[in-house]
Design a protein that fits this description.
The structure holds 2 protein chains of 2 kinds. By secondary structure, chain A is an alpha/beta fold. The model of chain A has no long low-confidence stretch (mean pLDDT 96). Chain A has an 11-stranded mixed sheet, with helices on both faces. In chain A, strands 4-5 form a two-stranded antiparallel sheet. Chain A has one domain: Amidase signature (AS) domain (Amidase signature (AS) enzymes). The relative contact order of chain A is 0.16. Chain A is globular. Chain A is 37% helix and 15% strand. By secondary structure, chain B is mainly α. Chain B has a domain of 38 residues. Chain B is built from 3 helices and 2 strands, in the order αααββ. In chain B, a hairpin with a 2-residue loop joins strand 1 and strand 2. The longest helix of chain B has 22 residues. Classes of the chains: A alpha/beta, B mainly alpha. The interface between A and B is large, with 71 and 50 residues.
Amino acid sequence: MKLFTAETEVKTQKKVVLDDMILTKDLPTCAGSKMLDGYMSLFDAQVVTKLSEAQIGICGKANVGEFAIDLLGETSYYGACTNDGKLVSASAEIVKTGKADAAIVLDVNGAPRRAAAQSDLVYIKPTYGTVSRYGTIPAACSGETVGVISTTANQCKEILGIIAGHDDKDGTSHADTVCQKIKTSSEKITKIALISAFNVDSDTAAKIDNFKTVIEKSGVSCHTVEGEKLLCARVAWNILMSAELCNNVSRYDGIKYGHRASEYTTIGELYTNSRTEAFGDLLKTAILYGSDTLSTENYMKVYDKALRIRRVVAEYFDELFKEYDAVLLPGCSKSFYTEKDIETNKYISFEENACTAPASITGLPAVVAGGVQIVGKAFSDAGLLDLAEIYEKGGK
Amino acid sequence: MEKETLIKLEKLNQLRLDDTQKISVIDFFAKRDSEMEIINSIDTKNTERMVHVMPILTVVRDDVEKKLFTRDQLQKGAPETMDGYWQVPRLVE
């Protein structure tokens, strides 16, 4: 089990681990792929610069699934991480075992949310555009965000406070005045919609019940809403994620950097052999699917449809937010996954992302605490973390 | 999905699948096709496409030339180089 793909000595009081989708100039960044095995970036990601300026040490890079699109890192070129027969995410395991105070991760397909929900950690996927993605390896740019996993809501808040802010180098970064909004709570969460449309196992259902019971002690009311419209987010997100991924990984051809096949005679063979040797099965499938959705034949009926469904989901959230302050969803459908789950269905991450897709496709903030996921209005990040803190304190 | 379409996609994306992978990818496509019913059941005729999740203005930076990296730095991660150039197989026979 390889938790770290690179590790360093840290002398600072506080230390964080970065998942291997975040570029660092002093440590290799491999995106869990043979294609980038040993790749050294020429520059640091903006979040790395911000952490260094705040005297936060970086203790290493955490193993991640190939281009972060899988369930919990099981497609990594460096192997899956397991604990007691259960699949675990390297970033979450590093934080849980106290090797780092927090993990900075790139949330592409919800893996950090599943990891935090199953490891009983706290996680924040901030509002899209409030944390710079400059220097993160692009996978599905229209929905991916840099997030923070830690043991407490307060710790997440502290790290988020450091890394959030405008960045000129990121074309999707909000103005600084807008980014600052996520650091302070403007309104308290008092009324929550509990979505019942997702099928979950009994342990996950118990976590949802427990969370509800605890926060209700503080005066927050929870109301069950079917929320069936949120189920279509997964289908649309799979289309958009694959299409964007297909474009983003087209740069890896074995010429300027990355893996180059040893056997080829023509330039075409160099490209094909390098990509065929270096990419794993899940990534290859996603590339082919993404490419197909963008074809002349499918563009309107598949890709364009997914973009319209994105608005349908966003408008549904708007409707919910007229009546409720936040929406409670499961973080994932099961309390743990095993390697057998992957053997049975190697495309499981395209199905088990049902609970995470609604926030991914809309860019809304999501906090995981107590094994559940709470999605809030744009820029309500601090309020969501306050709620997580209330849960930590047993509803007080 | 037709096998021919898959071959076309492999070529387009510079990938090569073996027979087992081909079967598995065809299964994946079939599953995704069947899921299209879920989103096709929602009428989106009057719904606009949502490309960006937040209203984001295009960032316009000053048109200033900056030399960020040297050729040596850029070629540090290159698989093969020769005399300061990236080395590739002969393109013209």
